[in-house]
Design a protein that fits this description.
The chain has 144 residues and is of the alpha+beta class. It has five helices and six strands; from the N terminus they run E-E-E-E-E-H-H-E-H-H-H.
Length: 144
């Protein structure tokens, strides 16, 4: 009866009707992609799990004025970017850098929160160095 793409562009919503009984129902079709493996720092491999990325984003954005829809959209963008690398395996470092770049565009506090865990700051000096890098980026005339 009717088909339309959903907002995220990865699903199609179809409104259907049974030819025998005329019952109407909705189906959702989602693109099925090949599995994507993430190579951990210790060499182990595990399947890419969007929930892990989303969980990290929510923790970084906790108590920040960022709507859940924005966080979910960023999680979709991250997955698309990781998959666009065209490799069946990516390193945890590649995923982490993509997440950090998205957070840097979104919110400075969320970025620093994520960076402090991702980069495993060991002392105040490493934390201050990251803050100084962030401040230079913000103060840069090239930054809109």
């Amino acid at each position: 009866m009717e088909s339309r793409d959903l907002e995220d562009g990865t699903s199609i919503r179809r409104r259907r009707q049974c030819l025998n009984c005329s019952h109407r129902f909705t189906t959702y079709e989602r693109l099925e992609r090949p599995p994507l493996a993430v190579i951990k720092k210790d060499g182990r491999r595990e399947l890419y799990r969007r929930e892990k990325v989303t969980g990290g984003l929510y923790r970084a954005c906790e108590k920040r004025p960022i709507p859940a829809e924005v966080i979910e959209a960023i999680a979709n963008q991250i997955e698309q970017e990781v998959r666009s690398l065209g490799e069946p395996e990516v390193t945890v470092g590649q995923v982490g850098e993509i997440v950090m770049n998205k957070l840097l565009e979104l919110d400075d506090v969320a970025y620093v929160r994520f960076a402090s865990v991702y980069r495993a700051f060991t002392d105040v000096a490493s934390f201050e160095a990251e803050l100084a890098r962030l401040k230079r980026r913000i103060d840069s005339p090239a930054n809109p």
